[in-house]
Specification:
CATH architecture of the largest domain: Sandwich
Strand order of the largest sheet: 7-13-12-9-10
Helix content: under 10%
Number of domains: 4
Number of helices: 1
Radius of gyration: 45 Å
CATH topology of the largest domain: Immunoglobulin-like
CATH class of the largest domain: Mainly Beta
Shape: rod-shaped
Order of helices and strands: EEEHEEEEEEEEEEEEEEEEEEEEEEEEEE
Strand content: over 45%
Distance between the termini: 145 Å
């Protein structure tokens, strides 16, 4: 006998090809020839493959990027498998949510089987893309500016950014790449300077650094003084007037003409009152020595001189 009908690719053995037959219900006939010939029919139903569709709510953005991919099939199917870059991530038919922390694009695949047992899959290449964050950084010069010249030049060392916003401790802003800024010159202070760098994709990074404006290093040492136990006048105590120094690294000494130490202090702002071992020192010329460290650059300096004690 022979087979006939849609989808029959081999009439002798009755091979049926669903793809050739197409979707629908098909009548297949088996015929026996000869004097006692006869025929019989049967039907075969070919179901359509499920059409796999899905969508994402957040296709691109800066890291970390959280995206939910949802099944948009009707009906969804009875079993599903989601894959990202070929790796399974979820078996939920409705949707899956994932967070991506590294820059790059990701392929998404949905494999599904419907109620008729038919399986199909679809892949959307580069469905989810994560943009690279910029890296904000900067340097500045000088690093030891003083109130005499509190102008600081900033050098932008950011990577992967196209626009910039500088905030100079709330005293001003700039969108220049390499701005300069003049800080207040009324007193030494620390200023928190922040740079926000934005990439062409809108990703942001920021960094803040402390800019220190130091007091100018100045020294004045009188060459004579008149001791007064009541401290009734400004010149009654002998001491250097120093600004811009480290008060924790300070030494001041007074010697008589024979080199004997008669006064010593490590406290800035404390001076010699003209006494030695509880007794008033005689009118004479004395030698002083001062050791200080500059606050703005850490340089240590020594100074020497003479002072006349007058009565």
């Amino acid at each position: 006998g022979t087979w006939s009908g849609p989808g029959i690719t081999n009439p002798t053995n009755g091979t049926f090809d669903p793809a050739s037959a197409g979707v629908g219900t098909h009548t297949i006939t088996y015929t026996i020839g000869g004097a006692c010939g006869n025929s019989s029919t049967t039907t075969i139903t070919v179901n359509a493959l499920p059409t796999v569709t899905f969508a994402v709510d957040n296709a691109s953005g800066c890291a970390p990027l959280t995206a939910t991919v949802s099944n948009t099939m009707t009906p969804m199917g009875t079993s599903c498998q989601w894959l990202v870059d070929g790796l399974p991530v979820s078996s939920s038919c409705a949707s899956f949510t994932n967070t991506y922390t590294t820059p790059g694009c990701h392929d998404v695949t949905l494999q599904t089987t419907d109620a008729n047992g038919c399986s199909n899959s679809a892949t959307i290449n580069s469905m989810i893309c994560v943009f690279a964050d910029p890296i904000a950084d900067f340097s500045f010069s000088p690093t030891n500016a003083t109130v005499i010249a509190p102008i600081v030049q900033f050098t932008n060392e950011s990577q992967g950014a196209s626009t910039y916003l500088w905030d100079f401790a709330g005293l001003g802003t700039s969108t220049q790449t390499n701005p300069s800024f003049t800080f207040p010159d009324d007193s030494p202070n620390n200023y928190n300077v922040c740079l926000t760098a934005t990439s062409a994709d809108g990703c942001i990074d920021s960094i803040c650094k402390i800019v220190m404006i130091y007091d100018e290093f100045l020294i004045y040492v009188p060459n004579a003084f008149t001791p007064d136990p009541n401290y009734d006048h400004l010149n009654s105590v002998f001491m250097p007037i120093v600004s811009g120094h480290d008060p924790d690294d300070y030494e001041f000494m007074v010697f008589d003409r024979w080199g004997e130490l008669i006064f010593y202090t490590q406290m800035s702002g404390v001076g010699w009152d003209g006494t030695y071992k509880g007794q008033a020192a005689k009118q004479d010329v004395y030698v002083w020595k001062l050791k200080v460290k500059k606050l703005y650059n850490g340089e240590k300096k020594e100074y020497y001189g003479h002072v006349s004690l007058l009565k």
